[in-house]
Amino acid sequence: MTIRVQSSPFDVGAETSDFAAAQTGMGAIVTFTGVVRDLPGDGLERMEIEHYPGMTEKALAAIADQAQTRWSLGGVLIIHRYGTLRAGDQIMMVATASKHRAHAFEAADFLMDYLKSRAPFWKKEYTRSGAEWVASKDEDEAALTRW
Amino acid sequence: MDILYFAWVRERVGLPRERIETTAATVADLVEELRAREERYAAAFADLSALRVAVDQELTDFDAPLAGAREVAFFPPMTGG
After folding, report:
1. Among A28, A136, A138, B12, which is most exposed with the fewest C-beta within 10 angstroms?
2. How confident is the model at residue A1 (pLDDT cuts 50, 70, 90)?
3. Angle, nearest 10°, between helix axes A101-118 and A55-70?
4. What residues in chain A have their Cβ under 8 A from chain B's Cβ atoms?
5. Which residues in chain A are closer than 8 Å to B80, comparing Cβ atoms?
6. Looking at chain B, which residue has its C-alpha nearest residue A56?
7. Which residue of chain B has the CA closest to A108?
8. Which CA distances in Å does A75 have to A2, A23, A30, A89, B3?
9. Cα separation of A136 and A113, whole Å?
10. Total domains in the fold of chain A
11. What is the mean pLDDT of each run of 10 residues along chain B (81 residues)?
12. Which residues form the domain of A115?
C-alpha cells in the first residue's frame, strides 16, 4: 500500500507504470484520476485544498486497509494533492491491482466513495466574484451506504 | 489540549490552532466552553449539524469523552477526492 499526500503535481502515466511494474501475478490494474473542473460563468481562478496533516495520512491508510480486507488486491496506491490548483490540474489518483478486474474496479470505486467524505480535505473555489468553500453533497454521504 | 480548526471553522474562529486548559468531560462540553468565550466562537459553533469533530485524529461524535485526549479538531464535512 502506498499513500502520498503532496502539494506537487504527479504524472499519472509514470505512477501507473511504476505501480503496475511492482505487481506480480495481477491481471488487472484500475486507475482513477480526479481533475479540477472549471466553473461555468466566471470561471475558476484557482482552488485551494486544505488538509489535516497527520490525520489525512491515517485516514487514507485506514480506507486502503478496509479495501484490502474486502477485496483480494495485489496493491493499492492513493495520491492526493493539497495547496493551490487550477482548472485541468490533477487533484488525486487511486490505483488498484487484482488478479481479475472485478475486484480492482470495485475496490477503486469504494476508495473514491470513502475519499470523498472520510478523508480530511476541504476545497475552496476562487472566482472573480469571490471565494466559496465547496459544500459536501448528501449523495456523497449516501454513497457510503452501498458498501 | 490542542484545538485545531479547519476550513471555514478556522476562518470564523480566526486561528488554525490554539492550546487551551480545559476540564471539559466531552466534546460537547468543550464546545459549550468555547462558545461562551467570544462571539467568533459562538459564530463558528452556531450549528453543530454543520460540523464534524476528530479526537486525536480519529473522527468521532460530540458525545465523545475527552479523558486523555491531546488534540481535538473541528471542521466542516470533508470534501476530498
Report:
1. A138
2. very high
3. 150
4. 34, 50, 52, 54-55, 58-59, 80, 91-92, 112, 115-124, 133-136, 141
5. 80, 92, 115-121
6. B57
7. B81
8. 8, 7, 11, 25, 36
9. 12
10. 1
11. 98 98 97 96 96 97 97 97 91
12. 2-146
Q: Which residue has the cell 502520498?
A: A4
Q: Mind telling me how many Å the CA of A115 is from chain B's nearest CA? A: 5
pLDDT tens readout for residues A69-101: 999 999 999 999 999 999 999 999 999 999 999
Helix (H) or strand (E) holding A116: helix A101-118
- Predicted confidence (pLDDT) per residue in A42-67, tens digit: 899 999 999 999 999 999 999 999 99
Q: Residue A34: which CATH number? A: 3.90.1170.40
Instruction: Kindly determine whether residue A118 and residue B76, on different chains, have CB atoms separated by under 8 Å.
Output: no
pLDDT confidence of residue A42: 86
Enumerate the residues of chain A whose CB falls inside 8 A of the CB of residue B10: 50
Predicted confidence at residue A21, as pLDDT, reads: 97
User: Can you list the domains of chain B with their CATH numbers?
Assistant: 2-75 (3.10.20.30)
